[in-house]
Design a protein that fits this description.
Number of strands: 8
Oligomer: single chain
Radius of gyration: 21 Å
Number of helices: 7
CATH superfamily of the largest domain: Immunoglobulins
Distance between the termini: 62 Å
Structural class: alpha+beta
CATH topology of the largest domain: Immunoglobulin-like
Helix content: 40-55%
Mean pLDDT: 90
Largest sheet: 4 strands, mixed
Length: about 230
């Protein structure tokens, strides 16, 4: 009850905030975590910069804050002694976001909610998981094929087709959701190495409000950079 009250107070503070004051709450729970440090990071140029942090000591709940001018992807990094850092990407927006996961499977158990952009990314990531699982299965079959060149070539063909379907799905997903910041983000982070004509098609389909957003502007600049290099 005390934690709910604290979050309610912060929501009231958010509604009154402006400028660089916090307008995003990222709260949640990491099952099994006894001691560690959580960092909330924002990408600035090519680096991830810590914008908030919290020491976890004896309790799995956490609450971090950020100030965003518009929805964007943040990095949630967990550092625990004698282990490698673990990371989650979340598409944050002004308001409250909730992250529930476990220490043992920090990435794979993560359930993220709280913004419409994150809900779309959840849908996208679920399909990407299916592509990844199928890819791993085909690689396993290829290894088992050994020196059987006919079978190995057949599986290689399946892998190539799977990769094309994966890219096509990402392109279609971005086009279907062109009215959200998810579209340019996917173009930049997932299919940046596809033919520039597809990136250009996605960009030209964006409404002005999205084209002028952080990821829309970055996509435009990236497209121009690629075109310049290929001229």
């Amino acid at each position: 009850m005390k934690r709910i009250f604290q979050i309610s107070v912060l929501v009231l503070l958010i509604s009154a905030c402006s400028g660089s004051e916090p307008n995003v709450i990222v709260n949640g729970q990491i099952r099994g975590l006894k001691k560690g440090t959580l960092y909330l990071e924002q990408q600035r140029d090519t680096s991830w910069v810590v914008i908030d942090s919290m020491l976890i000591n004896g309790q799995p709940d956490f609450l971090l804050q950020a100030s965003l001018d518009e929805p964007e992807v943040l990095n949630l990094r967990l550092d625990v002694a004698n282990t490698d850092s673990q990371r989650l990407r979340l598409f944050a927006a002004p308001g409250i976001m909730t992250v529930k996961t476990s220490l043992k499977r920090f990435f794979y158990d993560a359930k993220l909610s709280g913004s419409s952009q994150q809900e779309l990314m959840n849908q996208y990531n679920e399909m990407m998981d299916q592509f990844s699982n199928r890819n791993l299965e085909l690689i396993r079959q290829q290894l088992e094929a050994g020196v059987d060149s006919i079978k190995s070539d057949s599986i290689k063909g399946e892998l190539d087709k799977l990769m094309k379907r994966k890219y096509l799905y990402a392109i279609n997903f971005a086009m279907t959701n062109k009215n959200t910041r998810v579209a340019p983000y996917i173009a930049l982070s997932e299919i940046f190495d596809t033919n520039v004509k597809y990136l250009d098609t996605i960009y030209k389909a964006l409404p002005d409000s999205i084209a002028q957003s952080k990821y829309g502007t970055a996509l435009e600049n990236y497209i121009q950079e690629v075109k310049t290099k290929t001229e």
